Amino acid sequence: MRFKGVACDQKNKTDEEKLLSSLKLHNELSAFYELITKLVLVCMRKGIPLIIENPYASQHYLTRYWPIEPAIIDLNRRKSGDYYEKPTQYWFVNCEPLNNLIMDEAIALHPKKIVLDERGATRSLISPDYARRFIRTYLKKYDEKDYLK
Fold it and tell me: Which among 30, 41, 66, 144 has most CB atoms closer than 10 A?
């Protein structure tokens, strides 16, 4: 909506102001795309394992234009113990996600509201329970008896 100039805070702006804003956003997008691509290339060449987390949407820039497909798309993080339902995608570079079956049930947390602060939206924060479950499911060799002690 911001690229198109139709966001709520842009309704009183002139077409020229909207074009200038759109141009600035495209330049930022290009710079960030270049950075993430260079990071992945360095990790590939050096054999460094890397996991990238990013919001998922079918119209998302990386989903549509990046040549690397995400290994995991979590459409509802709340099912795994997070505060937010938001869909998230994960890329694994120089490593493969495991698919451990976790027997315990995820703790249902009260959903948090997305709040804007001076650093941006806090919606990107992942709950500690979701992070632990993600590590146990996708990153760590898992043996159920180790967690039943």
Answer: 66
